């Protein structure tokens, strides 16, 4: 299967596959390994994975591609993405991610492979993600100085 809308996230501590994408792969749910540990997201919400699964992932195009075996946690929660490849997957691929360039580069047997993001799709995902969030909650930052030459206190 060719999968799109994958977030390469060097800040994520795990590789995540969302339930709709898992269902489209037609893998029986009994193939999932039990997982009891909940995930904690950026804003503190807890998500309980349905389980974990080992999948073979091919990244790139011939001849500059690599194949790695990754363990994904399958979660049933709404997302704009089909999967998130976090630090474990990026380390297995020996990948470097540039968010500025929407580019990921990784080593292959023959040279350096790359995957490119689509700027329009990235913009749509971002706009959809923030569309309703700003109306529901506001992030309070009362102690933040935007400008100034004050040195922060050091412990």
UniProtKB/TrEMBL annotation:
Q: Which InterPro entries match?
A: Peptidase_aspartic_dom_sf
Which protein is depicted?
RVP_2 domain-containing protein
């Amino acid at each position: 299967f060719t999968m799109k809308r994958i977030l390469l996230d060097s800040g994520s501590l795990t590789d995540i596959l969302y339930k709709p994408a898992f269902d489209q792969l037609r893998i029986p749910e009994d193939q999932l390994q039990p997982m009891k540990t909940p995930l904690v997201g950026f804003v503190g919400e807890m998500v309980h994975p349905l389980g974990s699964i080992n999948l073979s992932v091919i990244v790139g195009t011939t001849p500059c591609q690599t194949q790695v075996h990754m363990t994904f946690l399958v979660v049933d929660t709404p997302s704009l993405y089909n999967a998130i490849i976090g630090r474990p997957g990026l380390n297995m691929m020996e990948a470097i991610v540039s968010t500025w360039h929407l580019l990921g580069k990784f080593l292959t047997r023959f040279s350096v492979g790359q995957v490119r993001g689509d700027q329009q799709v990235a913009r749509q995902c971002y706009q959809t993600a923030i569309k309703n969030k700003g109306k529901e909650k506001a992030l309070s930052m009362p102690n933040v100085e935007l400008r100034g030459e004050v040195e922060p206190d050091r412990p």
